[in-house]
Each structure stands twice: as C-alpha cells, then as structure tokens.
Design goal:
The complex is a heterodimer of chains A (145) and B (632). By secondary structure, chain A is of the alpha/beta class. Helix content of chain A is 38%, strand content 22%. The longest helix of chain A has 39 residues. Chain B is α/β, with parallel strands linked by helices. Chain B has three domains: 139 residues, PAS domain (Beta-Lactamase, 2-Layer Sandwich); 150 residues, Alpha-Beta Plaits, CATH 3.30.70.270; 235 residues, TIM Barrel, CATH 3.20.20.450. Chain B is 51% helix and 20% strand. In chain B, the strands form four sheets. Chain B has an eight-stranded mixed beta barrel with strand order 13-14-16-17-18-19-20-21, surrounded by four helices. Chain B has a five-stranded antiparallel β-sheet with strand order 2-1-5-4-3, with helices on both faces. The interface between A and B is medium-sized, with 18 and 23 residues.
Chain lengths: 145, 632
C-alpha cells in the first residue's frame, strides 16, 4: 500500500516538475516568436535556423519553418555560440551573445528572475527593421550594452 | 425484516451524502484558506517590515534629488555607497533583488542602483523585463505589491514610486525570493494536511460510528423480535419502557381463547400457525410507525396504541379499535394443513391516564383481560372503577401479609360412611386493618399473577405447616394454583419448610388446571411435590375443559368433583351420570373421589348412592377457624 503511495507521489512530483519546465519553454517560445515576427515582418513560415539547445521552440510555435543551413534562414535563433552565420539576422537568448555578435538585433534572456527583451537600435537600422510600437520601450542603443 | 434493514440504510443515506459534501467542501475550501493565510502573511508580516524602512530611504532620496535630480544623484559613487549601506538592513535572505529604476528622457526604464547580491545591474543599464508592473506603479503613483508568476522564481515584488520635484521619475523595486514563499507554503501545506487529516479522521469516525450504530440496530432488531410472530418480544418492552413513557398509549392485552386446547388437540405446529396468523391480523389493525405490538406471553399480545386522551372521540376510538382487533381475528377461520380453526380473542384495555405509568397500565389491562375471560371470553373489557377497587384491594392484601393477618379456616372432609374426618381443607381468609374478614373471592382475581399472590401463597403454606406441626394427628388439604406449582420459589419454600412427618399429612389440591400450559413440565413439578412427600388432589374435577387424559397422567391421589355438578345432583340426571362416570373412572385408576358442596341431606343421600364415600359441605361441617374447631 505504502509502496503504491510512494510511486504515485513520485509520478506527481515528476509531472509537476515537467509541467513547470514545459511552461517556461512555452513562454520562451511565445516571446521569441513575437520577436522574430517583429524583426522579419512575417507572421508565418519564418524560416529559422536554430542552435541545438533552441529546437524546442518549434514544438510550441507554429510560425517557424526549421531550415538546416544558416544561409537559408530568415532569422537565426542562437542559444549558444555558433559558427558561419555572420551577417545573418540573429536573435539570441543570452545577453553575452548579443554583445558578441554584431548581427544579433534582439535578445530574449532571463534576468533577475524575469524574461527580458532588448532590441539594439543601431543593428535594427542596419537591417532596416522598424519595430511595432509595442516594442519601442525595449530598444536601446548599442553603446549601452 | 429485510425491508426494514434496507429502509434503515436509506434513512442514513442523507447523512452519508452530507458527510461527503462536508469532506469535498473541506477539500476545496482548504486551498482558499491557504491563500487567505498567505495574503495575510504578505500584508501583515512581509511587506510592512520592508516598506516602512524603504519609505524613509525614499524620503531622503527625494529630498536630495530636489537639488540635483535623480540621475545626477546616483551618478555619485559615494551616494550609492551610502545608500547601499542603508539598504543592507533590508537585504536579508528573503529579499532576492533590490534596485532603483529611472525613466530616461525617452521614457525607458534604466537602473540607477542595484543592491542585489546576484545579477547586479550597472548604473544606467536598461531595464528590459517583459513586465508592465513598474510602469503601472509609476502611472498610478502608488505602492504596488505584485505576486509573481511561478515561472519567475520570485514570490513578490514591492514597487514604490520615487519622485523628483513632485513628479514620479523612478521606482524602488524589491523582489522577494520564492524560497520564503516555499517556506511559508510548506507550513501552510502542513496546516492543510493537518486539517484534511483531522477532518478525514473525524468523518471516518462518524462513518464508522454510523455503521456500528446501524449494525447495532440491526442486531437489536433481531434481539427484540419474536421469531415466530415477527412482533416485538418482552425484552423489547422491558428495555424500552422509557420510550413507551414518552407518549400517551392506550394499552390492550389480547389473549387467544382456549389456545391450550388448540395446542393439545392439533399439536404445536398448528398452535404456532395460529399465533402467527393472529399476530398478522392484529398488526393489520394498528399503525406500523406509531403503535407497538409485543408478544407478551404464550398466547398473549400486548398492543400499545399511541393516543390523545384529550381528544373528543378518545373513548369511542378505544372501543372501536378493540372491536376491530377482536373481529379481525375471528372474522375468518385460520386454515393450516387443511385444518380449519375458528379463533376468538379476549381483550383487556387500559385507557391512558396521566397518573398511570406503563407498568401499571399493563397490570390494569391484564385485570380487564382476566375479567373478560371470566365473563365468558371472546369479549372486550375495559379497566374500570370496579377493577380499580380490586387494585386497591391488592394493597390491603399486601398490608395484611406484612402484618401477619393471613389466616386459614378449615372445612373437614369426612368419610361419609363412618363420619370420621379424614382431613381438613384449608381456606384462606384475610383480616383487614379494620378487623373485617375478607374472603378469597373478594381478592383472588385482583392479586392473580402478581407478586402479592406468591407472598400470600407462602404465608398460607407457613400457616398450614404450623397447624400441622402443632397438631400431629390431623391432615390438611391445601389449595395451590397451577401458577403456584410452576413457581420454583414456592416449591423450594415447601421443601425448605416441611419434613416427612408433616408432608405425609399434607395434600396439595390443584386449582385452575386451565392454566397448565406444558403438561410434561407440569408433571415434573408434581413429581417434585411427591418427592417432598405430599399427596396430590385435583380440585373442581369435571368442570370447564379439563383434559381427562392429562389430568390422569398427573396420577392424583384424590379427585374432588366440582361443586357445580354436585349442587344440582338432586335435580339434574346429567349431573348424576357425570358423577357416576367420574366415580367409575376413578375407581378403575385407584383414585379416591371427594364430593364437595354437600349442602343438604338429600344431596348427601344422592352422593352416597353414587358410591362416593368422601365428602365436604356446609351440611356436614362449615369452615371455621382452627381454634374454634375441636380437633383431637
């Protein structure tokens, strides 16, 4: 009897934990989708090249079409460092990657326990991207990074 | 019975549903209670401790900002250090992040200072959180406390606007760690578990108690039910007297007429079938939920009918119901295995009265029943003033017993040929407190089946034994009823009181053979009397419906022919024939015959003509007290 209760509790705990992680992934996917949509100007079929650790976003967002090569993508979403994608429109999920890659126009990252967004003004201009008004408050100059 | 048990379970269904409802309510209410407690902790314990100190600091900041502006003020490294020092008071483990935000000229939020232990922002770093709460606090110019979502790894955020020249230009933000929430939640979870466990335990206990109670009632129901007739038994009545005292009941005792004859004639199976059918018919006449029917004795049923004695038609209703009970039983014959039996009942009724408790009511109904039986059976008698007078006489008898005012008069039984007295029949008399003599016919009915009767019998035995002891040459015949013989107490008393010298001179005269229910058992009692050494006589032989076979099985020494036969022996040829038949029958079995009620010379002559040689009666000698009689 007690064994059954322990197993049930284990299942409950595993499910609750998985559920919490899933929830975070879902939120991340939603925000990244909005960012990508804003920088590409497309609401569907955004060709995206993903680093290995970002593949989960296609599970929750249906506006992306994954491509295998960086050069075929409308936007690159990088969750870690990557090679041979210079000059490609990039959205990153780590703040330091935003500093590292000049072609990273926006970043989504977790800071002080919350999801954060930043768009780099100069880089947006380089890519001739004009953002919808609701994102203006997240735009900052490259010099403030 | 089965239907009643099912009904019992259905009766408790609402209780189970209510308990289930309570359990579900507790289950759903507890999280709400938990939320209320959490809010209370936030409002009264967490926020005030930080908020007040923060207000003081904000006052200082705002004061200084009036001079140089917030942006410039925080550019000053020394000011930031001073503030950090002040802030250190608040930066306990519960506070995860603490920082000051500022609106730049483009309306963008930037960090002016960050006192957090980790993820510390630098001066003028942009604030990019996907969260509008700070904007809201600034816009509304008021302190806001926000509960963060679970994924943020934060519990609460306290936001206080900071003004620069009376205009809100920034905000002080304190983020509380989720670990504090978890700590509180773990306490609340324990409280929740405790409430649920205690509630569950209480509800489980109630369910178990109800289950046990149902089982108890089921067993009780079996224990209280007469298995043959399926009505309540005596035990129910004795154990539920309090319940019976709660309401006003009219008491009916219903006795099946000549039931013993049915048993003797057709056997016990038929007797049982009659009992079952009578019980069924009686039940039809009463209300199942309000009235109570009890199998009181072998063939006696007690019925308690809930009544309102103040109602206008009360007495009419009582008689109406009694008639209905009587007619319902006798209307159709009872058929069993092809045997058809017409059954009648006698009913005694005690109307409900405030001054009478249930035990007295039963006694009153019993007395009324006795009267009904005496008056010819198949009738209804209601306890009335005359019977009430009898009731009063019980106390007079009891008083006489207590005061040793029980005496015996003696009438000789004579050998009619020799004129010699062979023995004396003892006849009980009571002397009342005012010195009046009370004869048996005045009190015997009243005390029948009461403990007073037993006490009286013992007194009579004691009296006669004394007379025998003091007069060693005489013999005495003493009357005992069948109920006395059944009473183990009385037989023990005789056994205790007398020795062989006394017992051989004592004859026990059996009265009222109609009361003999179980002849085999009765024979055992008679054997015991014989073992003590007493002779046995059958009184009133030839009257009523005495079963000759059974009487003979008792093997009496004497048969006393009933006075009703002897008294008209001179005018009724049938009486002569009966007397002759009894004499012949007794001679064949070696039983001596005594003729009583010899009240004239003519009767004496007629008796002698039949060959009977023992007799008694007023013509021969009338009963007188022992001291007056010159014996020996």
């Amino acid at each position: 009897m007690f064994r059954i209760i322990y197993v049930l509790l284990l299942f409950y705990w595993a499910f609750a934990f998985a559920n919490s992680k899933e929830q975070i992934h879902k939120i991340e996917s939603e925000i990244i989708s909005k960012i990508c949509s804003a920088v590409t100007g497309k609401n569907a079929d955004i060709k995206v090249y993903l680093t290995e650790n970002m593949k989960y976003i296609t599970k929750y967002s249906k506006i992306f079409v994954m491509v295998d090569r960086c050069k075929d993508a409308d936007v690159v979403i990088a969750g870690k460092e990557l090679q041979n994608c210079r000059g490609k429109l990039m959205v990153v999920t780590k703040y330091y990657l935003l500093k590292k890659y000049n072609n990273a126009v926006a970043a989504f990252y977790w800071y002080k326990g919350r999801p954060n967004i930043i768009f780099v003004k100069e880089r947006l201009e380089n890519f001739k991207i004009s953002l919808p008004d609701r994102f203006i408050k997240y735009v900052d100059s490259e010099k403030n990074l | 019975m089965k239907r009643k048990e099912t009904k019992l379970l259905w009766d408790y269904l609402p209780v189970f549903l209510i308990l289930l409802g309570i359990l579900l309510s507790i289950y759903f209410i507890v999280p709400k209670i938990k939320a209320v407690i959490e809010d209370s902790i936030i409002k009264n314990a967490i926020v005030p401790t930080v908020s007040k100190g923060l207000d003081n600091i904000i006052t200082v900041i705002e004061k200084d900002a009036q001079r140089v502006g917030l942006k410039e003020l925080f550019k000053n490294e020394r000011f930031r250090e001073w503030l950090k020092d002040k802030m250190s008071i608040f930066l306990n483990d519960d506070v995860k992040y603490a920082y000051i935000l500022y609106f730049d000229k483009n309306g963008k939020l930037r960090y002016l200072a960050d006192f957090s232990k980790e993820e510390k922002a630098r001066y003028w770093q942009s604030y990019n959180a996907v969260d509008d709460t700070v904007y809201k606090a600034v816009k509304e110019n008021r302190t806001i406390v926000v509960k963060q979502r679970s994924y943020t790894d934060l519990w609460l955020t306290l936001i206080k606007p900071i003004k620069e020249n009376n205009q809100v230009k920034g905000a002080f933000v304190i983020d509380f760690s989720i670990s504090k929430l978890r700590e509180i939640q773990s306490i609340l979870d324990r409280i929740k578990e405790f409430i649920l466990i205690v509630s569950g335990f209480i509800i489980l206990s109630i369910i178990i108690s109800i289950y046990q109670f149902i089982r108890y009632r089921k067993n009780l129901s079996k224990m209280y039910t007469d298995p043959l007739t399926n009505v309540y038994n005596r035990l129910f009545m004795y154990e539920n007297l309090d319940l019976l005292k709660k309401y006003n009941y009219t008491t009916y005792i219903v006795d099946i007429d000549f039931f013993k004859r049915i048993n003797d004639t057709y056997g016990h199976d038929v007797g049982d079938a009659v009992l079952k059918e009578v019980a069924k018919r009686l039940k039809k006449c009463i209300r199942e939920d309000e009235d109570i029917i009890v199998r009181y004795g072998g063939e006696e049923f007690l019925i308690f009918v809930r009544s309102n004695p103040l109602s206008e038609n009360y007495k009419v209703d009582v008689i109406h119901l009694a008639s209905r009970l009587k007619n319902e039983v006798s209307r159709n014959v009872i058929e069993y295995n092809g045997i058809k039996i017409k059954v009648t009942v006698s009913i005694g009724v005690a109307v409900c009265r405030d001054d009478v408790d249930i035990e007295q009511a039963i006694k009153m109904a019993d007395m009324a029943l006795y009267k009904a039986k005496q008056n010819g059976r198949n009738r209804i008698e209601i306890y009335d003033k005359v019977l009430e007078a009898n009731d009063k006489s019980i106390s007079i008898i009891k008083e006489a017993i207590d005061n040793n005012n029980v005496i015996c008069w003696y009438q000789p039984i004579i050998n009619l040929k020799t004129g010699k007295v062979i023995k004396y029949e003892s006849l009980v008399r009571i002397i009342s407190s005012d010195g009046k003599l009370i004869y048996p016919h005045q009190f015997m009915n009243a005390i029948r089946r009461t403990y007073v009767h037993v006490d009286l019998t013992k007194k009579v035995i004691e009296y006669n034994v004394n007379v025998l002891r003091n007069n060693p040459k005489i013999s005495i015949s003493m009357n005992l009823s069948a109920l006395d013989i059944y009473n183990e107490d009385i037989l023990d008393y005789i056994d205790f009181l007398i020795d062989k010298n006394i017992s051989k001179r004592l004859t026990i005269e059996l009265l009222e053979s109609e009361d003999i229910e179980d002849y085999e058992f009765f024979k055992e009692k008679i054997s015991r009397i014989r073992e003590i050494g007493c002779s046995i006589a059958i009184d009133d032989f030839g009257s009523g419906y005495s079963n000759f076979t059974h009487i003979v099985e008792l093997n009496p020494d004497y048969i006393k022919i009933d006075g009703s036969i002897i008294k008209d022996i001179d005018i009724n040829p049938r009486s002569i024939a009966i007397v002759k038949a009894i004499k012949y029958f007794a001679d064949e079995l070696g039983i001596k015959v005594i003729a009583e009620y010899i009240h004239s010379a003519y009767i004496l002559r007629k008796v002698l003509e039949t060959g009977i040689i023992y007799g008694q009666g007023y013509f021969l000698k009338e009963p007188i007290p022992f001291k007056k009689r010159k014996i020996a």
